[in-house]
Amino acid sequence: MIWPEAVSSRVKTGQDRELVHSYPYRSACPSTVWAKLVADATSDMLLAGYTNYFFWTMIPDFAGIIRKKVQSGCRVRFLLGDPTGETTRRREEVEGAALTVSTRIRMSLEQLDRLAPLDGLEVRTSAPEDAANHVGLSVFLFDSDALVTPPPRSRDRP
Hints:
globular, single chain
């Protein structure tokens, strides 16, 4: 844990604690935690990662799970980056990865398009003025549980 004294002095601990676990980055959170959060959500899911690509590769039949969630009344919202946006292009330069940010976003959008139309499923991309914040800060809500990623260090920002 980063800064354990700061956390323990500011966050409730004990049986009704507010902070359950801390991970240094999103991919450090075990896939079993992600799968359980998705499986247990019944009323609301907000997946506001910049690409959300990892869900499709990490959770078997993720599309089928989303379909069933929505059909049973769960509101499911996705917020993705704009695959053609300037922030995405700059992030690709920083990452220099073969599987580009825009490709990962497009793959998520393609999977979501296959689910449409599905009443209760919302898909949006971040506005250009918000994209610089969104690329580094992801929020994932599952009913009353949340996973939040910290923004990258300033040298990593696009």
